[in-house]
Amino acid sequence: MAEPDGDRRAETLAAVSFGLATVAALALVVVFWRGGQPQAEGLLLGVVTGGLGVGIVLWARLATPQDDVTEERHLAGSTEEQVSALASDFGAGGAAFGRRRLLVGLLASAGAAFGAALVFPIRSLGPRPGKGFKRTAYGDGRVRLVTADGRPVLVDDLPLDGVVTVWPEGHTGDGDAPTLLIRTRPDQTLRPRPGRRDWTIEGVVAYSKLCTHVGCPVGLYQAAAGLLLCPCHQSTFDVLDGARPVFGPAARSLPQLPLGRNAQGELIALGDFSGPVGPGFWDRDR
Predict the structure, then answer these.
(1) Residue-wise burial string across 204-235, b where 16 or more C-beta atoms lie within 10 A, e elsewhere
(2) Is 128 contained in some domain?
């Protein structure tokens, strides 16, 4: 039995669709390589996906049998005409199998070219942030705390209930490093977190100035209650209890900075913050 012309036509159209998708995917690679052009990228992406879709539909619906065929089986010998017809059918099936191997190859080529094109926009996302969000300039340890004009800070520079914004020396422009130094009252009891008993100096405690909600600067200090308030969305943090959030949308404490003092009596950071500064991000350990 000869292969229907409709099957051959469908396979030919599917092959053309796959070939067109391959060419469009390679052109998309070239467009990305030369710096990109939104209109051309959109057009080529449409041709790639459309060619793949049309080719797969044509192949699935027109080039493969769709009807159920049943035949009674009975013992019978084969005539010479039946043997000859069977041999003819095997030959036609072999030709169709060869064409379908070509279709598989074209489909694989289109998929590979499309995958290569997708590498470019993926690469444009940039490198993984790694530890960039988890480490600040304080991470080197024993870094002097300085004001915006670069002046080192002594404990005696801080009055009771005083709040001063400081940075690590040499990094006053770093957006992740602003730190609040707060000198609490003698009658206020700090309740340090485990492992942080020696992180304060004479009632002076240091926290990141970046709110853990959306990163606004925290700076309103209610000295009598020992509370820090973020003016953006009213998140409130308990300074005496590890800057734990007690009101508002913030769900994480302000990271604390371990404080020390050098031979000149200047305040220094003994290490980095207790956790990532600012709002939560995708790679933060929980």
Answers:
(1) bbbbbbbbbbebbebeebebeebbbbbeeeeb
(2) no
